[in-house]
Specification:
This protein has 52 helices and 26 strands. The chain is an alpha+beta fold and about 1900 residues long. It starts with a helix and ends with a strand.
Length: about 1900
């Protein structure tokens, strides 16, 4: 293929440009070898001639459009500098892609903007993926290194390089973050966090602001991240290189010193930093050079806080941290020390220099020594030591050298501490190193630092070139193709110039050893040695102190000034000795003399760059190591490490110097591309065979170039050879490998041109045939239409003539008819007018007559009404006067009566008031009478006789009075008869009058009814109209309300779903934490076990409700200390009053039990217990307040309730002393209150006296106590007397023995009385005890005084010890007694009253229900008519009879069953009789009779099938065996042959038996062990999907069964009567239902996780890569990244396609159906799986450029249709699973849609489920596969963005979908129709120990 074939008219080329470096142009003429060619610039359309100086150096050709924007630059057909630059610019500016592959190099362009492309979801997407399958990213490089290390156990290195400000540090941080995420160790040490924590520390002490970068690393570092065999991070190690110490003492303009100085100054106002005496950065000499103390958007104080947190995390103590900051502050103050010239050639420091004082104080050194030796130095000669003063220049240099040395030593100390913190005790098997090192640097003035940096880059470039060449060589060898040596740039001569013997560094070290060595002498030696001999060394024209080195990247001129001093890095020994004598340990430690690291045994390359130190006194200078030699040695060790690893390269590019976001300057980019080796990679690749195609890809892409006879589908390699040999004539342009075809540069573009030409020719051929077919079809249509026109035209003319003949005939007929019609109309009009005139005249006269008669009638009516009105008015006036007179008379009479009544009332009230004052006297008299009764014992016989006589007299009197009363009654009855007769006659007369009035009113009523009927009709019509309007409004408002309700329901549903998802996330988090707890326990046991790993028994309850910590909260303990209450010991059981208190567990027991306790659930249960306790206390407070408000709230022992007196009032209606009883009761209450007040006052006075007198037991005190006791006794006597009187009065009026025994009021009264009596007895006993104690105390104190103090009682309590003892004892006794009494009384009272209230509420509820039903029936019957009432009563009777009939029918059925069985028995007996077995029958009958007589219950044995209660009985010791056989040992294959949900039924039947026997402890342990067993089984077999599904189904079934048989009406709607009989009676297991629901959620999440892990490798292959439509997709070359070394071979990769995904889904569906999982739950499972498939596919699509084209969109949509069809086939299309595929479906539609400006709105509407970043990303990634497709223009993408901003109000800017999102799962109630009595247990379960009940 010659240049004449390539450089033709229309060819696109690149030409050089001074501003843009390269610009695109198009040839306007063919190139035939002429010196100039006419071209047109594409940017501005300018035409000009381009001169061609060399025919062998023609302008670079441009790649076709389909290759623009490729992920890998090596996949370009034409590999040259302009194409690389243009491709990077397109990706960076148009697509905002900052990463691009260039062979093995990842090119990263700094966007100077935060991009959302580093989230955890992106790490998950790149984890496990091959390098070439996803878009370029730093995570892909990190994953490649991690995969190579984990698969091949080979150490890896990631080399990050670039200019300052290119983003090296950030890239290294992201790579380390990726390793920390994928290599998380799951241990408590969290090494990965420590590795990341080292970044803020090193940035603070090693980074600074430069003109090119705000956070520039001023040192190189290599971090080795160590991994164990499980590929978990176990440690790290950091090596640093060439810290820029000169920055400590000097910074250029607009630059800063190291960040740590500014951070300290920003925090100077904090208390802990006050002692450092810090100032503003502008006030310190070392931080004010650059005049830029602040960085935009950076808070130095916050950065210092984060650095301190990182130091703390790495184990550096607070003391050491503050000491480090103190040293750094001392460096700042040291810079402000002012030196000045003294007499002669000497220098001095001012005496009042405060900064020197502060610096010495901070470093803990003597100020006088530092003042002395800053201006002097020692000179050691053979016999003496001399002191020489330093000049001002020398002293200033020594000052700066010391400051740099202090900072460098501090830096090294921190690095050492960081390495110690990151060091792992576990043996490291492999590591990944991350090298963050400075890139190639060239400035206007280049010094020693730039020389070392460029020397390091030369070494790295050499390794890079060798590695690239090695990869190319390996690829050619692997494919077994012939290859020739590729010439590449070798920079070994340049390296030799620097580091070889007598090289630059060697000569520099030699000059440093010379006593009078200088930079000029050294430079002259370089000229003499290398000038003209080394091609990489040159001399500047106008300088004698500079030299030039031709590096691989550029020519650099170095200024020799300062090289020797920087290489020596001299620090005076006197200064070091002063620092070594510091009073601070850390300062002295920093400057201790250390052994050379090279003399130690250390790991390869572990030496850090140390500053040059002065040797000991008298030491030789030959042992010192210069900075250059140290750097050379460390660089050699680094090269050894890198050569022993597999390198991965990241080249960071700085797009512009102004740090503007997404601005690309071509000149700056080209410089860096040349310097970092990217173009060298391109050159090496272009020198060989850069384009590589696999045989299938080549055939699929270029089969249009093949003829049919050349195609052999069974051998694609042979087919490709046939095609290529005919298409490309030169065999040197390609090579056939084993699996690939290798092409020279430009050959793919040539093939693309041939392919497009062939496709164009085919298109023209197709167009020719299509156009001919269209022309023939058009001619046939024209001829056919002409014949049709002729036919229809002739028919039209014939029809017109026939129509004319018909119209003429019809016209004559119409004229005749019309003339007759007009004549007839005229006649009728005249006659009608005459008739109208006559009728009008006659009507007028009739109306006049009617008006006259109407006027007369109205006048008569008015006269009649007026006369009647006047008569009524006169009558009313007379009647009103009469009524007024009557009322006046009656009022006067009433007033007189009122006065009389008032007088009587006043007199009676006076008497009552008088009697009130006499009550006390009556009581006293009563007492005197009682006393006199004792004296009148001798008069008893006379009194008895007198009483008998009086009784006889009273009987006679009563008989006489009864006779008088009866005679009076007779006379009264006669008088009543007369009165009644008179009233009867009077009423008859009134009746006649009423009858007449009734007739009148009836007539008036009929008239009113007629009027009302008319009004009713009108109102009815209006009502109908209003109803119609109302219905219309209701329909309108109904629609509106429906919409609002639907919106509200959606909001509520969303809130409910969010709450449910939050709850399930908590369950999921709980499961994760529990798993982590188990992992930690297992690791702890492994570490503590001397014999190795042992498995721990995990059958201990993880959510044991018996746990001490979960069942007894601190609040409960406190509550129990205050008063032990009786607690409910079971579900619905009676309270166990005498239950013993649980023993207090020991610490060991608690620790043992807490090992397997689920901490999360324990906390939940504790919170639940606290909440229940709080609810209980609130309920008790409500009950107490209710008791206080109601009459029952008073104490039993204090006041008799008013309800008792109300009842007594009803019984004592005829009694005269009811008021007296009530008064006495109130009096008793008042006395009781006064008694309590008096007791409280006495206690207060007692305490006051004790405080005043010191509680001295004296005689007055005893008198006071005795007086108190006497008063209490008198009060009690008074109460007793009043109660006796009360009882006496009640006994006289009421006979409790006869009528009061059954009275509730009487019973209640007697109970209250006995309680009062008990209370009085108790008070009496307390008084006696108090008296005895006082007496005993007096005796004991007197005895003590007599024995010990000589009878002096006052000395006994001299120190007030008795008072203290008495007070404490009294308080203890009172506290204990109050607690005991309070708890006993309150609990008894509350228990009794709560029970009573419950009973009353139940009774009231039943009564209310009855009354409601009666009221409903009555109201219904009242509303009905008489016939309806009869029907209602009949209906009621019918229902009653039907219920009775049903009962009778059940009895009849039972009897019929018995008869049927008896008939069977008779048949058997008859058969036996026929056979002659009479004796056997008789023996059997006798045996049955005996059994019936001996045991009547034996008959039930024959009817087990009818009396089975659906329960299973088991022993307590068999519980573990039950769990083992039913849960742990049950296999899915066995379960498939059983009844679905049988384990759940068996467990519930066991629960039913515990409910039946009311054993709450047994049910608690059974359910807890069941939960733990299921958890243990699922955890143990979490990889066995069938077992997980089995226990998900059984857990759900057990949950449904607990609901179905709970007894709650909401769950019994579908139960049969037999199932309702099986409901629980004693237990309420609603709390356990929640636990089982959480368990089901956890099992569901475990199952989903297992399914998603299985589907993960299939999703991309099935949805994105599967090509169901053959020949639709045409692939492109993948570049070097397609041959990633970590990619598994085809032999190891299982073929994954859409069919394999469908098979897996079918398997899941089959497993779920076999184990009878609820259909609703199956829908939720596949909804979650389809969401995972769709989100995973979309995320991969967003990260794969090769998938974003039209043909792939068609393939993806076709593959998704298969998944949707699968849902329809399995009847899951209503599960919501299809909606989860909408995102990937819309993405595929977006790929297929037209992308013109007119389609902006349609695309925005179509992509409603995609976010704006997703739409823009797909459009940016869209890449045409053929030339016939157009690339999406940037303007179109901008319009899409603007349209989406205006139409969408959401702030969702997420790019990737969260694949870990899980929908909240629900378990809808699904009752079973199976009854428990029909469940049978197969023998295969080995549950023989269960007994059916």
């Amino acid at each position: 293929m010659t240049s004449a074939e390539l450089y033709v008219q229309g060819a696109r080329i690149w030409i050089p440009d001074s501003e843009k470096v390269w610009v695109g142009a198009e040839l306007l003429e063919n190139y035939t070898g002429q010196k100039s060619v006419k071209i047109q610039i594409e940017d501005n359309g300018q035409e000009r001639n381009f001169e061609i100086k060399d025919k062998n150096r023609l302008p670079h050709l441009r790649n076709p459009e389909i290759l623009i924007g490729e992920n890998d630059l090596t996949s370009l057909s034409y590999l040259n500098e302009p194409e690389v630059l243009y491709n990077l610019r397109v990706r960076f500016l148009e697509r905002n892609c900052i990463y691009t592959y260039c062979g093995i190099v990842l090119v990263a362009i700094n966007p100077y903007q935060q991009l959302p492309i580093y989230g955890n979801e992106l790490i998950q997407m790149y984890s496990g993926q091959d390098m070439g399958t996803m878009d370029p990213h730093i995570f892909a490089v990190a994953e490649e290194a991690f995969k190579l290390m984990s698969r091949f156990d080979k150490n890896q290195s990631i080399i990050v390089s670039g200019e300052s400000g290119a983003g090296k540090t950030v890239s290294a941080k992201y790579a380390m973050r990726y390793f920390a995420m994928v290599g998380g160790s799951q241990t408590e040490t969290q090494v990965e966090q420590k590795v990341l924590a080292s970044n803020p520390i090193m940035e603070a002490i090693g980074n600074a602001k430069t003109t090119r970068n705000d956070n520039s690393s001023r040192f190189g570092k290599y971090i080795e991240i160590s991994f164990n065999k499980k590929n978990e991070i176990i440690g790290a190690h950091m090596r640093t290189y060439l810290l820029e110490k000169s920055r400590v003492v000097f910074q250029a303009s607009e630059e800063r010193n190291y960040h740590i100085f500014y951070q300290l100054c920003a925090s100077r106002d904090l208390p802990e930093y006050k002692k450092f005496c810090l100032l503003s950065p502008d006030d310190f000499f070392y931080t004010s050079h650059g005049q830029a103390p602040e960085i935009d958007g950076v808070d130095d104080a916050e950065d210092l806080i984060s650095a301190r947190e990182a130091l703390t995390m790495l184990g550096i103590s607070e003391k050491n941290q503050m000491m480090i900051f103190q040293i750094q502050s001392a460096v700042l103050h040291f810079g402000n020390v002012k030196l000045r010239e003294a007499d002669g050639e000497s220098s001095e420091i001012k005496k009042d220099d405060k900064h020197l004082t502060i610096m010495c104080k901070l470093l803990g050194i003597e100020e006088s020594q530092m003042r002395m030796w800053l201006c002097h130095k020692k000179i050691v000669t053979v016999g003496e030591v001399l002191t020489k003063p330093l000049t001002l220049t020398q002293a200033s240099f020594a000052q700066d050298a010391l400051a740099k040395h202090i900072y460098a030593q501090t830096f090294d100390w921190i690095v050492e501490k960081v390495n110690r913190a990151l060091h792992s005790t576990t043996k490291s098997t492999k590591f990944i190193g991350v090298l963050d090192i400075y890139g190639f640097e060239t400035f206007e003035i280049n010094s020693f630092e730039q020389f070392c940096i460029n020397y390091a880059n030369e070494k790295l470039q050499q390794i890079f070139n060798m590695h690239v060449f090695k990869l190319e060589q390996e690829e050619y060898v692997r494919e077994a193709i012939e290859w020739s040596f590729i010439d590449f740039y070798d920079n070994q001569p340049c390296i030799d110039l620097i580091e070889s013997k007598l090289g630059i560094l060697d000569l520099l070290d030699e000059e440093c050893k010379m006593p009078k060595g200088s930079d000029e002498n050294w430079c002259q030696k370089l000229y003499d040695k290398h000038l003209g001999k080394a091609k990489h060394f040159e001399k500047p024209r106008m300088s004698r102190s500079a030299f030039i080195i031709n590096h691989f990247a550029d020519r650099v001129e170095y200024q020799a000034d300062g090289f020797l001093e920087k290489n020596r890095d001299t620090v005076l020994e006197e200064h070091l000795n002063i620092l070594r004598a510091s009073e601070f340990e850390l300062v002295a430690e920093l400057f201790e003399e250390k052994v050379d690291p090279n003399e130690k045994k250390s790991r390869a390359g572990s030496a850090t760059t140390h500053a040059m130190r002065q040797g000991p006194k008298g030491g030789g200078r030959s042992n010192k190591k210069t900075v250059g030699s140290q750097f050379r040695d460390s660089l050699h060790k680094l090269m050894q490490t890198l050569n022993a690893t597999t390198p991965h390269y990241i080249r960071c590019i700085k797009p512009n110097d102004e740090k503007e976001a997404f601005v690309f300057e071509p000149n700056r980019a080209v410089e860096q591309l040349r310097a970092c080796g990217v173009l060298e990679t391109i050159r090496i690749s272009a020198a060989g065979y850069p384009s590589r195609w696999t045989y299938p890809e080549f055939f699929q892409r270029y089969r249009v170039l093949a003829r049919s006879k050349d195609i052999n589908r069974s051998n694609t390699k042979k087919t490709c050879e046939n095609v290529l040999t005919k298409v490309i004539q030169d065999p040197e342009k390609y090579r056939f490998g084993k699996t690939k075809i290798f092409f020279r540069a430009g050959q793919v573009a040539y093939l693309e041109k041939l392919r497009s030409d062939k496709l164009k020719a085919c298109g023209i051929m197709i167009q020719k045939h299509v156009k001919g077919w269209l022309a023939r079809r058009r001619y046939q249509r024209i001829t056919k239409s002409i014949m049709l026109l002729q036919k229809y035209g002739r028919g039209l003319l014939a029809r017109r003539h026939a129509k004319f003949l018909r119209e003429t005939f019809a016209a004559t007929r119409i004229q005749k008819r019309w003339r007759g019609h007009t004549a007839r109309v005229r006649y009728l009009k005249i006659r009608g007018a005459a008739v109208v005139i006559q009728s009008a005249i006659r009507g007028h006269f009739g109306r006049l007559l009617f008006k006259k008669e109407l006027h007369e009638h109205r006048a008569i009516t008015i006269q009649k009404l007026v006369r009647s009105w006047l008569a009524r008015k006169r009558y009313k006036k007379v009647m009103r006067g009469i009524v007024l007179l009557q009322s006046h008379f009656r009022r006067r009479r009433a007033k007189r009566e009122l006065k009389k009544l008032k007088i009587e009332a006043k007199s009676v009230e006076h008497i009552k008031n008088v009697n009130k004052g006499l009550e006390n006297k009556i009581i006293q008299l009563q007492q005197k009478l009682d006393a006199k009764n004792k004296e009148a014992l001798g008069m008893k016989e006379q009194d008895v006789y007198i009483r008998q006589l009086k009784g006889d007299m009273e009987k006679l009197r009563t008989s006489n009075e009864e006779g008088k009363k009866s005679s009076n009654k007779v006379s009264e009855l006669v008088q009543q008869i007369k009165d009644l007769q008179e009233e009867l006659s009077r009423e008859r007369k009134e009746k006649e009058v009423l009858v007449t009035e009734r007739d009148k009113t009836r007539k008036e009523h009929t008239q009113v009814l007629s009027k009302l009927a008319e009004e009713k009709c009108k109102l009815k019509e209006e009502l109908d109209e209003a109803n119609l309007k109302l219905q219309q409004q209701e329909t309108e408002t109904g629609d509106v309300m429906k919409k609002k309700l639907e919106e509200a329901n959606k909001l509520l549903q969303a809130e409910f779903e969010s709450e449910r998802s939050h709850h399930q996330r908590l369950v999921k988090e709980h499961a994760r934490l529990q798993q982590r707890l188990e992992n930690l326990q297992s690791e702890f046991q492994v570490l503590t076990s001397p014999q190795g790993h042992k498995r721990t028994p995990s059958d201990i309850s993880a959510i044991s409700l018996e746990s001490y910590t979960s069942s007894v909260s601190p609040d409960d303990i406190k509550y129990d200390e205050e008063g032990p209450e009786e607690k409910d010991q079971g579900y619905g059981t009676k309270k166990k009053k005498k239950a013993p208190a649980p023993p207090v567990p020991t610490a060991t027991a608690i620790e043992k039990e807490m090992k397997d306790v689920d901490i999360g659930l324990v906390l939940k249960l504790q919170n639940k217990v606290k909440e229940l306790e709080r609810q209980r206390t609130e309920l008790e407070e409500k009950v107490e307040s209710y008791e206080e408000e109601t009459p029952r709230g008073s104490r039993d022992s204090a006041v008799i309730p008013n309800s008792a007196f109300d009842a007594l009032k009803q019984q004592l209606v005829n009694a005269d002393d009811v008021q007296l009883v009530i008064k006495l009761q109130k009096r008793i209450a008042e006395l009781e209150m006064t008694k309590s007040k008096l007791a409280d006052e006495l206690d207060e006075r007692d305490e006051e006296d004790e405080e005043k007198s010191g509680f001295k037991i004296t005689t007055p005190e005893f008198a006071y106590n005795n007086l108190k006791m006497q008063e209490l006794q008198n009060e009690n006597d008074k109460l007793k007397r009043e109660v006796n009187k009360l009882m006496k009065s009640i006994s006289e009026n009421v006979n409790f023995e006869k009528g009061g025994s059954n009275s509730p009021a009487g019973k209640e009264f007697m109970d209250q009385f006995t309680a009062m009596a008990d209370e009085l007895d108790r008070r009496r006993e307390e008084c006696l005890q108090l008296r005895a104690m006082l007496a005993e105390k007096s005796i004991t104190t007197h005895a003590i005084a007599k024995e010990s103090y000589g009878g002096m009682d006052d000395i006994v309590n001299e120190d007030n010890e008795l008072a203290l003892a008495y007070r404490t004892q009294k308080e203890l006794n009172r506290l204990l007694e109050n607690q005991l009494q309070k708890t006993e009384k309150d609990m008894k009272k509350k228990e009794d009253k709560l029970k009573r209230e419950i009973k009353e509420l139940k009774q009231e509820n039943e009564a209310a229900q009855k009354t409601i039903s009666q009221y409903n029936s009555i109201t219904r019957n009242l509303q009905l008519g008489p016939e309806a009432k009869i029907e209602a009563t009949m209906q009621h009777e019918i229902t009653r009879l039907t219920s009775e009939n049903l009962d009778l029918r059940e009895k009849a059925d039972k009897q019929s069953d018995q008869i049927r069985k008896m008939k069977k028995m008779l048949k058997v007996y008859t058969k036996k009789l026929k056979d002659g077995d009479v004796a056997e029958i008789e023996a059997e009958l006798e045996r049955e009779d005996k059994q019936k007589k001996s045991d009547d219950s034996v008959a039930t044995v024959k009817h087990l099938d009818r009396t089975y209660m659906g329960m299973l009985e088991y022993q307590k010791e068999d519980e573990a065996q039950l769990i083992k056989c039913l849960i742990m040992d049950l296999k899915p294959k066995v379960a498939q042959g059983l009844l679905p949900g049988l384990p759940a039924y068996v467990l519930f039947m066991c629960v039913r038996h515990t409910d039946y026997i009311n054993d709450d402890e047994k049910v608690r342990t059974l359910l807890t062990n069941t939960i733990n067993g299921i958890k243990k089984c699922v955890k143990k077999h979490n990889k066995d999907l069938e077992r997980v599904i089995l226990w998900l189904a059984n857990t759900c079934r057990l949950l449904h069964t607990l609901k179905q048989y709970s007894g709650e009406k909401s769950f019994q709607s579908e139960n049969t009567s037999r199932q309702n009989e099986h409901c629980l009676r004693n237990f309420d297991l609603s709390e356990y239902r929640q636990v089982f629901s959480d368990l089901a959620v956890w099992i569901y999440q475990t199952m989903i996780k297992h399914m998603e892990e299985a589907l993960q490798p299939m999703v991309v292959a099935a949805v994105l890569e599967h090509e169901a439509i053959a020949g639709l997709t045409a692939s492109k070359p993948a570049g070097m990244r397609g041959r990633s070394s970590s990619t598994a071979t085809d032999e190891n990769v299982r073929e994954l396609s859409l069919d394999s995904l469908m098979k897996v889904l079918n398997k899941y569906s089959q497993n779920l159906s076999q184990h009878a999982v609820d259909p609703e739950l199956i829908k939720q499972v596949f909804r979650q799986l389809y969401y995972y498939i769709g989100s995973n596919a979309l995320n991969n699509l967003l990260l794969r450029k090769d998938m974003c084209n039209w043909s792939k969109g068609m393939q993806i949509r076709y593959n998704l249709s298969h998944l949707e069809q699968w849902l329809r086939d399995n009847k899951l299309n209503e599960s919501g699973a299809q909606s989860t595929l909408e995102t990937i479906t819309q993405a595929s539609q977006l790929l297929q849609a037209r992308k013109s400006d007119a389609d902006v709105d349609s695309i925005c509407e179509m992509c409603s489920k995609l976010t704006t970043p997703q739409i823009v990303k797909i459009l940016n990634l869209y890449t045409p596969v053929d030339e016939f497709e157009e690339r999406v223009p940037i303007s179109f993408i901008r319009k899409i963005q603007e349209r989406l901003k205006t139409t969408r109000n959401d702030d969702d800017n997420t790019l990737l979908i969260d694949i870990k999102y899980s929908f909240p799962v629900t378990f809808p109630f699904n009752p079973s129709s199976l009854t428990l009595d029909t469940v049978e247990i197969p023998e295969s379960l080995h549950l023989e120990f269960l007994t059916r009940v």
